[in-house]
Design a protein that fits this description.
8 helices; about 5% strand; 2 strands; mainly alpha; about 150 residues; Arc Repressor Mutant, subunit A
Length: about 150
């Protein structure tokens, strides 16, 4: 070991202090990039997003992106992402997929005949039944992805 390695400070305490200092620097940098915006603005974005999701059902668009929704609300991606994360305690993708799953469940409940799962997935905004989202979320709905879903299942 050389002289420099011998003289370096390294302990768990020193390491945790250094991590804490770096975390504070990152937080300050993020605050500069995305400054605090008013509670009124957060509320406006939250209400606008809920209106787009519930009334206009934008989640049915399989190509929906955070930037698209931000444009619809007249804001930027950072602000919208912050509202979704802080106010709704979820990520944008999880929020959209939750709405899609609810819509798919309602389609299944209203069905009076067997409907191919691909059709349900497509109507709810999923790209395909083989997509990771539907497969990963099947445990949350307690339904297994199959080729068709009988109308009496729900």
């Amino acid at each position: 070991m050389g002289y420099v390695g011998y003289k370096q400070k390294f302990s768990i305490q020193y390491f945790t202090e250094e991590v804490h200092v770096n975390d504070q620097r990152i937080a300050q940098h993020i605050t500069k990039l995305v400054p605090n915006f008013s509670v009124k603005e957060m509320s406006r974005l939250n209400k606008g997003l809920q209106k787009l999701l519930e009334e206009k059902q934008i989640y049915k668009n399989p190509d929906l992106r955070l930037s698209d929704v931000a444009l619809m609300l007249g804001t930027n991606r950072s602000y919208l992402s912050r509202v979704v994360n802080d106010e709704m305690n979820t990520s944008f993708c999880e929020l959209i997929n939750d709405y899609r799953i609810r819509h798919a469940k309602s389609l299944l409940e209203k069905a009076d005949e067997e409907i191919p799962l691909e059709d349900i997935a497509s109507m709810a905004g999923f790209i395909s039944k083989n997509g990771g989202t539907l497969r990963c979320r099947s445990d949350a709905t307690h339904l297994l992805p199959t080729t068709t879903v009988p109308a009496t299942m729900c």
